[in-house]
Amino acid sequence: MVRRSSLALTALAALLAAALLAAAWWGLRPRSAPLAAGLSLAEAMGGGAEGYLRAVEPRPFSFPTDHGPHPGFRTEWWYFTGNLSGPEGEAYGFHLTFFRSALRPPAARSEGDSAWRADDLYMAHFALADERGGRFRHAERFARAAIGLAGAESAPLRVWLEDWSAAAEPDAGPEGIPPLRLRAREGSLALDLRLERGKPPVLQGDRGLSQKGPEPGNASHYYSLTRLPARGTLALDGREIAVTGSAWMDREWSTSALGEEVAGWDWFALQLDDGRDLMLYRLRREDGTADPWSKGSLVAADGSARTLTAEEFVLAPLATWTSPATGAAYPVRWRIALPAEGLELTVAPRLEAQEMQVAVRYWEGAVTVRGRDPSGPVAGHGFLEMTGYAPEAGAGERERAASAAASRTGG
Fold it and tell me: Which of 68, 159, 185, 220 is the most buried (most CB within 10 A)?
């Protein structure tokens, strides 16, 4: 009976994690979709933003502390993506991401409770695209921040969900940017990477305040580490492969972000061979038009950066791929133009089929970049993320995710 009850609680926690973190990822807009046992998402999220901090004005950043968690805010994520090369020139794209969603405001948390009590839920995604092999593999996990299953710590950074982790090495560098170690394993797929110091943090938006809607608080605190040299190993079906490449880290924390009219977004993180980095996101309205709060940043080779407003770049889809699993049509090939820079780029996927068929369905994958600017040809690589194109996962899929989470934690 104890084991069965524990399994039920763990499964319910996983279901709630899927729904809560889906809401957090979708701009933290409470929705009324039913979850489990008559509990609505709005109810599960504890009445919205009340009791949490909100991103309403620029703040000073302090590193390495800000690499770690911000429990006063309702949600945050650590987002690692990158392109890697093997010893024979084979190309791989990876992403490893951790999401935290609070179950209760800070004032409602209590010290000294049972070790089973959880104030936060965590979700993590791990994926690898193997261009030569033509395969895309991905996995998802959920866990409560209890009994050591998941959590995040500051100075030095450590964020983990079971045996998936991102942790700072002890030798922090300038501005508190440490080398980072990424580790994840799922069956025959594994990643073990060391990310070296690269460019200094880029504070996105207005000194790190990324406003994504007209209302005060429709914003996040957001910074990026846009170019982190990477070295380590991949494990694929019993083979261990030495890899090198370049990674990107995005960090955001907020309590509410997107306006009600936003249906999804298209986000680009591109590393050009000339040393420049480009981040763009198009917030997409229900009617398919771009929201004026769409933004970006252009980072020079020396690390200096400038913010791009929606009027300073053009994004145009060129070709779509339709998922046989969900029926969603994703614009996987794009034209990007920055007229003031004389920069025109074409972004194409390493593999078309890089859809994450998880609790929140989306397309996230490695891309190549080709184009021109006034100095001549331009090339590079990066990552593209597209959300809001696929239908939400059904109850059966959420239950399977819950069962998988329960089996990993011992039921």
Answer: 220
